[in-house]
Design brief:
six-stranded antiparallel β-sheet, globular, about 20% helix, 2 helices, alpha+beta
């Protein structure tokens, strides 16, 4: 995964806890995935709502992160989230954690998710309502041609 330049419309502060810090004095790498997960949930709620997930749910099929510089407690961290690609059954999220004060990028994460029918447990096409909501939301932040 190479560092990407995106405009992010969705941004959310991520509260660090003392227990997030490992014995080396920085936030443990496993904590980032919890922060990214929390913020992608807020992204879905804010952008597409919850009704669309009555029968389908996005499931992580691939995730990778680049840890650029350490985060130390009590740094103030913001997580930015963008959906950068929507395919037939999958989509890609790009997220990054940055220091709210300095705007230094601390970690970048790319996640591929597949839509699953929760009743029969098979992959399904990305719902039109999801696609439309994301394309509308992201249109001023990311070239929509990249979403198709």
């Amino acid at each position: 995964m190479e560092s990407k330049k995106y405009k992010f419309r969705h941004s959310m502060p991520a509260q660090l806890r003392f227990s997030d810090v490992d014995r080396f004095g920085h936030v443990n790498n496993s904590v980032y995935f919890s922060l990214f997960d929390m913020c992608k949930t807020h992204y879905f709620n804010d952008v597409v709502g919850t009704d669309i997930f009555d029968r389908v749910a996005p499931v992580v099929v691939h995730i990778e992160a680049n840890f650029i510089t350490p985060v130390y407690f009590p740094d103030e961290i913001v997580i930015q989230t963008s959906i950068t690609r929507i395919g037939n059954k999958s989509f890609t999220l790009f997220q990054r954690a940055l220091n709210e004060r300095t705007h230094e990028v601390k970690c970048e994460c790319e996640t591929v998710m597949v839509m699953m029918d929760t009743q029969v447990n098979v992959s399904v096409s990305v719902p039109d309502g999801f696609r439309t909501a994301v394309e509308t939301y992201e249109s001023s932040a990311v070239d929509c041609r990249a979403l198709k």
